[in-house]
Design brief:
The structure holds 2 protein chains of 2 kinds. Chain A is mainly alpha-helical. Chain A contains 4 helices and no strands. The longest helix of chain A is centred in the C-terminal third of the chain and has 31 residues. Chain B is mainly α. Chain B has a domain of 339 residues. In chain B, 77% of the residues lie in helices and 2% in strands. Chain B has 21 helices and 2 strands. In chain B, helix 2 packs antiparallel against helix 3 and helix 17 runs antiparallel to helix 18. The radius of gyration of chain B is 21 Å and the shape is globular. Chain B starts with 6 loop residues before the first helix and ends with a helix. Chains A and B meet through helix 2 and helix 3 of A and helix 6 and helix 7 of B.
């Protein structure tokens, strides 16, 4: 795997994780998208160095780039795309229903907090 | 005849398309759904006998011979779980149709339900890691829709947790597959089982744990289970019952398949045993603290997953066979318990233990259905839970893993305690004066049918355990699996 791909994937995972831990739903979705991109990039990088298009013509098969992981990554991208669209729809409904984009504390956590007499 | 192994995937897909085309008529959708689920159950039953006699069926999709292309591998383990899953899918569908609300209010229900069935079938039958990922995505995306379509207000948050956790796990799974492909150059499970031998030990172990983590999130093992009790109770009853019965167990199946085939261990895996013990105990303690039937049962899902991981962690034929029997028992019993819980909610308007009492007198039928299911969950003889737990304990005693055996028995006692809490709180006590709401008879029949299957498991324990032992023997011997998938065939 080339250094550029490795470092980019690492950066995507890191940024995605940071965004995932935020309280705003829109940021969480962007974060998930970035993590998925990172995963796709790792998958793309897993096939070894780039080479000639894998179409049988004259010459050997030695220089061909691996087509399998490209097929895999295409599948993965389509799945990510659909799921992200679904998540955005959910976020929109959540916004319509509650008028805010913020993810609240867990109900149970709030109950425990109020029982312990502390408040934030 | 080998193409019959694709039917458990193809039938639901066709049915899903048909259900979309007939969205104007709920009746047509119901007929399509029930016929499809019944057909899958028939095919699965046929597959169980065929595979047991004639050996594993391998289908190369598009005639690409493994390790190229996608291979569907119907071995003993896969078809047994396929049959169990098909029974659960059919029973829950009948329950949903009798209840009537779920599919009437949401016309996409039958299409999504069949998509989920297709995902389950593909996850069980696939012979390569990437298709497993795709199968999980099909199954989980369908489950996201079923989970969220009714949620409003407060519930939106919990269902979003479910979706987001699912997506993080999927991204991790994809990364794990990428790393696997990078080090081994293949995603075919049979091929991987040899190719991974050439991979350095550290890298191999890391991959093993990454896959364990990913499927662990889906299976809700300790400490990755927090999303489950929060989100499951919010869905409509049939949906919760299906999720409870099936989804986490497919995660366990993926753990069993990958760990045994790709990352075999010579002796019991201590770390996995610790995880198993903690899952049992923390899950059941969580259940004891709850005050709502569905939430109690949701924590029990977690707790029972621990038993399956325990059987796997022994890495012996007896242990894995016990885990298989236990998975079969759990799919049936867990779904039935949730169906009963749903009947309480349906007839009393709520499932909160404090608010409901005297159900055994108000609607005796619900009590009659609850009792065997609850006792089976706790592991009382002669019910199916006893068969599973006895096999697990015997497997543990065989290799003198006294610690985990003690923990599992302790968790069983706590399970029984928690079930008596439901029994005492909901079914006994003063019966209110007002008449309970009437239940559609189909709901009781569907639940009773599931309990009958559980009884069959208990009565037919000997053949089932022998079958599971053959399945486990297939599993622990990767050469057999490799020969079936990669070997020369006519």
């Amino acid at each position: 795997m080339s250094w550029v791909i490795a470092i980019t994937a690492g950066a995507l995972f890191a940024t995605g994780t940071y965004l995932l831990l935020q309280r705003l739903l829109s940021r969480i979705i962007v974060g998930l998208g970035l993590i998925a991109h990172g995963a796709n990039l790792v998958l793309l990088g897993s096939g070894g160095p780039p080479g000639a298009p894998p179409i049988i013509e004259e010459g050997g098969v030695a220089n061909y780039s691996d087509p399998l992981e490209q097929a895999l990554v295409l599948t993965a991208i389509v799945i990510t795309f659909a799921i992200t669209a679904f998540l955005l729809a959910l976020a929109y409904r959540s916004w319509i229903e509650r008028g805010s984009d913020e993810v609240e504390d867990d109900l149970e956590d709030r109950r425990i907090l109020s029982k312990s007499g502390k408040s934030r | 005849m080998t193409t019959a192994a694709t039917l458990p995937i193809v039938i639901p897909l066709v049915a899903a398309a048909a259900a979309l085309l007939t969205y104007r008529s709920v009746t047509a959708q119901r007929v399509i759904g029930i016929i499809a689920s019944a057909a899958v159950a028939m095919v699965a039953l046929w597959l169980v006998f065929t595979v047991d006699d004639g050996g594993t069926i391998v289908v190369s999709v598009g005639e690409w011979v493994p390790p190229l292309g996608i291979a569907l591998v119907a071995d003993r383990l896969a078809v047994l779980l396929l049959l169990t899953a098909a029974i659960a899918l059919l029973a829950v569908l009948l329950y949903a149709v009798s209840q009537g609300e779920t599919d009437h209010d949401f016309r996409g229900f039958h299409a999504v339900y069949q998509m989920l069935a297709a995902g389950v079938g593909l996850a069980l039958l696939t012979g390569d890691l990437f298709t497993l990922f795709v199968a999980f995505e099909i199954m989980l995306t369908a489950s996201y829709v079923l989970m969220t379509h009714r949620a409003d207000g407060e519930e939106t948050r919990s269902t979003l947790t479910y979706v987001v956790i699912g997506l993080v796990a999927s991204a991790l799974l994809l990364t794990a597959i990428a790393i696997t492909y990078a080090v081994a150059g293949t995603v075919n499970l049979a091929d991987l089982s040899t190719k991974l031998d050439e991979v350095p030990d550290g890298l191999r172990a890391g991959l093993g744990w990454l896959l364990f983590l990913v499927f662990g999130i889906k299976a809700a093992i300790f400490p990755l289970f927090f999303w489950l009790p929060d989100s499951y109770p919010l869905a409509p009853t049939p949906v919760t019952a299906l999720f409870a019965g099936l989804l986490t167990k497919i995660g366990v199946y993926a753990i069993v398949r990958t760990q045994v085939l790709l990352f075999p261990s010579d002796g019991p895996a201590t770390f996995m045993l610790v995880i198993a013990g903690l899952t049992m105990v923390v899950g059941v303690l969580g259940a004891i603290a709850q005050k709502d039937i569905k939430r109690i049962l949701s924590f029990h899902i977690v707790s029972q997953i621990g038993y399956m991981i325990m059987g796997l962690a022994f890495f012996t034929v007896a242990g894995i066979a016990a885990a298989i029997v236990f998975i079969v028992h759990q799919i049936i019993i867990k779904a039935s318990l949730f169906l009963v819980g749903g009947m309480v909610e349906e007839s009393e308007g709520t499932g909160a233990i404090d608010a409901v009492s005297g159900v055994a007198r108000r609607t005796p039928l619900i009590g009659v259905l609850f009792l065997p299911a609850a006792l089976s969950l706790a592991g009382f003889p002669p019910l199916s839970g006893f068969v599973g737990k006895l096999a697990l304990v015997e497997a543990g005693v065989d290799i003198e893993a006294w610690g985990i055996v003690a923990v599992s028995l302790f968790a069983s006692v706590l399970t029984l305690f928690s079930m008596t809490k439901i029994w005492g709180g909901v079914f006994l006590g003063k019966a209110a004066e007002d008449a309970p709401r009437r239940l559609a008879p189909g709901m009781s029949w569907a639940t009773a049918g599931m309990l009958a299957v559980s009884l069959v498991i208990a009565l037919g324990a000997e053949p089932l355990i022998q079958y599971a032992e053959r399945a486990a023997a297939d599993l622990v011997d990767p050469v057999t699996y490799r020969n079936w998938v990669l070997g020369v065939r006519g």
